[in-house]
Design goal:
With about 280 residues, this protein is of the alpha/beta class. α5 packs across α6.
Length: about 280
């Protein structure tokens, strides 16, 4: 070695480095290997999470870590790849049913059951398709109702709404696109009987139903695109587990202060008790 032939001071002067640099031995911060293992496990469980949300998930497990460090680790571990997004279309707005105005533009959402939003999507099986109808409460991001069906007829959305109304107080406003499934008489009558005001996005303005669109995207990216369903029954069980258990009680939302929908709603109701 160079230090065996020349004094350390002379060698450092010749190389233009300080003596402290020669003696420095890098030490990984405490928990380095354990943090990597935990990050790998969390990233595998939530493959579409970015570094900020993974940071919050690690903190929920007790890790004292900041977002910059998680980002650096993800880069070194090759975990920063982006998932490709695929958008599906199921809306048929060519019908003769009544059109309703948009009641939620610029509306400030302040409490649960103020606004429900809904949407439909289709899911590819090995040799067939099934269809999913969803209803979500905007304030809590909680799933209020859902139904998986073999056909895209009005019963799909009607059953999802019946489930929602059976287990939750009726919302003040129900918002959707102008698809025939939401404009048909059977659906709107259910809402009117529950004294719910009906709101619809304008045709071709998908952003006006953005909350529901984002919910569909989340379910596609975090469940459907990562699964291979054998048949309808397998899809029903796995999607139901994701919606009722994972999404509601395990998946954290940045818009909810990195709480799950169930945590956020429970916290809000504890702070704002009502009838």
């Amino acid at each position: 070695m160079l230090a065996e032939t020349y004094p350390v001071t002379l060698a450092c002067d010749l190389l233009g480095v300080s003596r402290s640099s020669y003696y420095y031995r890098p030490v990984e911060s405490p928990g380095g290997d354990g943090l990597r293992a935990a990050l790998k496990q969390v990233a595998a469980e939530w493959p579409t999470y970015g570094y900020r949300r993974l940071t919050q998930q690690l903190r929920r497990q007790g890790w004292q870590v900041n977002a910059k460090r998680v980002q650096r680790l993800m880069r070194s571990m090759g975990l920063l790849a982006q998932t490709k997004r695929r958008k599906q279309h199921t809306t048929n707005s060519r019908h003769g049913f009544r059109r309703y105005p948009n009641l939620v533009l610029d509306l400030e959402i302040e409490c649960p059951e103020q606004v429900w939003v809904c949407d439909l999507t289709y899911i590819r099986l090995r040799g067939d398709f099934v269809y999913l109808a969803l209803i979500m409460d905007v304030f809590t991001r909680g799933i209020r109702g859902w139904q998986l069906g073999r056909t895209l007829d009005q019963s799909l959305s009607v059953i999802a709404l019946q489930r929602a109304l059976a287990h939750h107080p009726a919302p003040a406003i129900h918002h959707s696109d102008q698809g025939i499934q939401y404009a048909t008489g059977a659906y709107t009558q259910l809402l009117e009987q529950a004294n719910v005001r009906i709101s619809m996005a304008e045709v071709g303005q998908a952003w006006q139903n953005g909350y529901a669109e984002r919910l569909i995207r989340t379910i596609k990216e975090e469940e459907v695109d990562l699964a291979e369903y054998r048949d309808y029954h397998d899809a029903y069980q796995q999607i139901g587990h994701f919606l009722d258990d994972v999404y509601m009680y395990k998946r954290i939302h940045s818009s909810l202060g990195y709480l799950t929908p169930a945590e956020f709603e429970a916290q809000w109701r504890a702070a704002c008790p009502g009838p």
